[in-house]
Structures are given as C-alpha cells and as structure tokens.
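Dear support,

I submitted the protein below through the web form. The confirmation email said the job was done, but the results page showed an empty box. After a refresh the structure appeared. I'm attaching both so you can tell me whether what I see now is the final result or a partial one.
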Amino acid sequence: MTRERTYQTEAVILRRRNWGEADRILTLFTPQRGKIRVRAAGVRKPASRKAGHLELFHRASLYLAKGRDFDIVTQAESVEAYPRLREDLVRSAAASYAVELLDRLSPEESENAAAYRLIVRILEALNAGGEPALILRCYDLKLLEYSGYRPELARCTIGGEEIRPEDQFFSPARGGAVCPRCADRAEGRIPVTLAALRVLRHIQRSPLEDAMALAVKKTTLNELEDVLHRYIQYLLESPLRSRKYFSEVSRPRGEGGV
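What the results page shows now:
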C-alpha cells in the first residue's frame, strides 16, 4: 500500500541549522512521530513566508511532503510563538536547556505524546513568568520518567528497603536513592539532604501543575539541580551545553519556602 505523500503535524522546533544557500534543516518534536528532522526549503530567502513560523521554540502547525533524505516543509503556521522566550535572556536560556534535553533523550521517530505535551506546557510556563529553576527541575523529573529513566526515590537501590526520613545518597549508576547503610557499596554516590529528597519525591508523584506551584528554597533548588544533572550526565555520557549557559545568565533569586 502506497504511503501518503503529504501529511500534517503539529511540532515544536528544537534545533535548526543552515543548509545550502537558502534552506534550513529543522529538528522537530511532534506528538505522533516524536523527534524528526525536516528541510525547510528557501526559508532563508528574504521573501519566505514560512520563516517567521519556524523560529526556535515555536509551536507550529506544519504540512510536509515526503522526501528522499528529509521530508520537506510545504506550509507552516504558528500555533504559539512564546514571545518572552526571545525577549528575556534567562527564559531563553531555560528554553534552550529544555529543548536540548528533549533532543538528547529522544531517539529518532519514536512516538512520545507525553513528552510532547510536557515540552509544550513547560514552554508555556516559562513564557507566562514562572520560576525557571523550579520549572526545569519539574521538567527534568517528568521527562526522565516519560523517557524510561524514572529515578527510584522511595527504596534503596542496593538493599531494597524503604527509604527512611533522614539524609540519604543518590547513585547515578544505580538510578536512584541509596540509604546510608549501603552507601559504601555505591561508587560515585551523591549526598542528598532530607529536604531535597522530599522535594524530589513530591515533584515525582504530583501532577505537573501542582509541582510547579511548590515553594522551594534556593539552596534546595541548587541541590536538586546538582543531583538531577549528575544523573542526566551519566545517562547522556556528556554534559548539556545549555546547562552552563543557563547558570551563567540566571540572576540570583530570593529565598523562601520549604
């Protein structure tokens, strides 16, 4: 049976690079096909009508034609442009982090509708003025789960016993918490305070909206970032470039909360 030569999809633009004299190769994330790469022919020409709808972080409705190497964007219309992500340097850096992590964790053409809904909601929250550091930590935990890397936070990943209400450790290699009694058997372990562990567990088990509404101290947010990004770096086997950029442009935030 012959496949349709054209199709329509919604997508978030994750990445783009110039191709030839006037084209661009776009990395998209879609609800039905996950991550795909397509060619936007002629989009760099001054008269291109598609260019304004294919900016980074945009959510767009696209029509594509099947191609030999890359499918071709034939029509594009913005669904949401998220203007604050271009106007605010910190929010732009946070969005860059979000799309890079999604790109790095996602295989080509592997459907992940939950991850698509997540990136859309995260871009909306950043654009609406939410606290970027907290939004990104909620994003980390939810995307890890939707990508098959949910960290174990309720039981020791070595002994199997339920975690007690005390300071613990986290093992990137074992993918979760390690109790103090088993810590010597976990190479590369990271100490985790009880406060940070409670926030991690709250975010993991809560709906995204509830998690993003939590009040968290700056020191605890910093600890969450360290733990989650050591785990993410272990999974990816290399650091995220956008993490350093976000750290450099982020302004100090006031403390308060749990």
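Response: this is the final, complete result; the empty box was a page-load delay. The domain at 84-249 is CATH 1.20.1440.120 (de novo design (two linked rop proteins)).
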